[in-house]
Amino acid sequence: ASLTEAARLGGGGSDGSGAGWALHSRGRTLSKFAEAAACLTPRAAPERMPCRERERAEVLSALRAALVEDGSGSSLYLSGTPGTGKTATVHHALRELATEPALPAFRTIEINGMKLSSPQQVYTLLWEAISGMHASPTRAMQCLERRFCESQPKGKRKSKMATVLLLDELDYLVTRTQSVIYNLFEWATSSASGMLIIGISNTMDLPERLLPRVHSRVGIHRINFFPYAHADIAAIIGDRLTNLDAFNASGIELCARKVASVSGDVRRALEVCRLAAQLAERQALERGASPPEHVTISHIDAAARQLRGSVVARAVTELPVHQLLLLTSVLLVSSSTGRAEVDTESLSAHHRGVCLQHLCLEPLSPSELSE
C-alpha cells in the first residue's frame, strides 16, 4: 500500500530529517524504501542536474541569447544516446529561464515525434497549440507558413510572444523528401517568426544524413550529450536519494557499473534501483522475515535479473524465427539509414538477403510478409 501511495505522490521528497520516514498522506507514513522508490521514478523531476553542468550552461546561454532577440533565427540541436539527460536538461533550463524577470515572456510547445501518427501531424499540433484551432496537416502548414513568414510593416514592432518549440525524437519527423524538418527549421530562421526550435534526437549524426539544404538549417548550434560514466550514474542516484538512508553505497556502485558498462542510460539505472527498493520494501513487510536496514547488493542483483527477464524480453525470445529475423532487419535498416521509419521494400530486401546469404533459409513471400 505504501508503494502505491508513493507512486501516486510521484516523488515528493524528504523533509531533510534524514530518518527516511518523511512522506505523509492521509495519516499514513511511507517507509524509507517506498520514499526512495518514489524519488527514483522517471516522473520525479529532479531539482538539480548533476553531471550535466556544462551542457546545461550551454543550453541556458543559447536560449537566453535567443530569447533576448525574440527567438528569431535560432535553433538548437541536441543529440546523444537514450538516457543521457537531453530532455531533462532542456526542461530544467526552460524552468529556470521562465523565472528570470529580465527576459521577455515566452511560451513553450513540446511535441514528441515518436507519438505522431505521421510526420505531417506536427503541423496540426503546432497550429492548434498556437491558435487553438484544429486543421488538417495541409491546411495547418499553410496557416503556419503565413504566420511565420508574413512581413512586418516598416517601423512596426513585433507583438508576437516568442515561441520555444521543443521537438523531441526529431528523427521520427524525417520523411523521404525531408520537407517537414526543413519547413520547421526554415520558419525559425525567418525574422518575423519569433520562434526558437530545440531539436532532440538519439542519432548523433542525423544532420549529416539529411539533405544539404536541411543540414544547413538543423546544424546551426549543436550540443552533444555523451553516455554517463559509472561515477556520473552513482552521483545522480545519490542526488535523488539525498537525506534518505535507504541504500548501501556498494549497491549504488554496483548498479552504476552494470549500467555504464552496457549503455550509460541513467534511466535504466534508476529503474533498477527503484525495483530494488520495492524488493526491499516487500521483504520488510513479510511476516517472520528479518527486515533489511538498507537496499543491498543482493536487492540490486535481483532487480537487474527481473528486468532482464521482463515480459517483453521473454516474448521476443519465443518468437518464430522469421519474426525474429524481421525484427533484426528493422533494427539493421534503421541503424544504417539513421531513420526511425523503415519502408516495406527495404525491410523485405534486407530480410531476403539475411535468409539467403547467411542462413540458407527460404524467405517469406510478399503475402506472408504483409501478414
Automatic annotation (TrEMBL):
Residues of the AAA+ ATPase domain: 72-224
The record's InterPro entries line, in alphabetical order, gives: AAA+_ATPase, AAA_lid_10, ATPase_AAA_core, ORC1/CDC6, P-loop_NTPase
Which GO biological process entries does UniProt record here?
Answer: DNA replication initiation; mitotic DNA replication checkpoint signaling
Give the start-end ranges of region Disordered: 1-20
SMART domains annotated for this entry? AAA
Where in the cell is the protein located? Answer: Nucleus
Compositional bias annotation for Gly residues:
9-19
Q: Name one GO molecular function term.
A: ATP binding
For the keyword ATP-binding, the answer is: yes
Keywords from UniProt, A to Z, are: ATP-binding, DNA replication, DNA-binding, Nucleotide-binding, Nucleus
Source taxon at top rank: Eukaryota
Q: Which GO terms describe its cellular component?
A: nuclear origin of replication recognition complex
Q: Which family does it belong to?
A: Belongs to the ORC1 family.
Q: What does this protein do?
A: Component of the origin recognition complex (ORC) that binds origins of replication. DNA-binding is ATP-dependent, however specific DNA sequences that define origins of replication have not been identified so far. ORC is required to assemble the pre-replication complex necessary to initiate DNA replication.
* Self-association state and partner proteins as the record states: ORC is composed of six subunits.
For this entry, the protein name equals: Origin recognition complex subunit 1
Source organism:
Coccolithus braarudii
